[in-house]
Amino acid sequence: MSSASSIEFDPSALPAARSVAHHSRPAVRTIQVGLLGLGNVGQAVARLAAGVTPLSERGWRFQVAGALVRDTRRARDCPLPARLTTDAAAFLRGSYDVVIEALGTIEPARTLIARLLGRGIPVVTANKALVAAEGASLAALAARRGTSLRYEASALAGVPFLGALDARPLVSDLHHCVGVVNGTSNFILSRLAADGASFADALAAAQALGMTEPDPSRDLDGLDACDKLMLLASIFGWGRFPPDAVDVCGIRDVTGRDSAAARTVGCTIKPLVCASRDGATVSGFIGPTLVPLDHPLAALTGTLSGIQLSGRFISDLCFSGPGAGPDITAATLLDDAVESLSSAPTRLRLPRVPAEPLAAAPAVTEWFVRAQFPGFVPDPATVRSVLSGFGVAVQHVTGAEDEACWLLLAPASRQQIVEVEAALRETHRIRCVSFRAIGGACAWSMTRA
Ligand SMILES: NC(=O)c1ccc[n+]([C@@H]2O[C@H](COP(=O)([O-])OP(=O)(O)OC[C@H]3O[C@@H](n4cnc5c(N)ncnc54)[C@H](OP(=O)(O)O)[C@@H]3O)[C@@H](O)[C@H]2O)c1
Question: Which end of the chain has fewer CB atoms surrounding its CB within 10 Å, N or C?
Answer without folding.
Answer: N
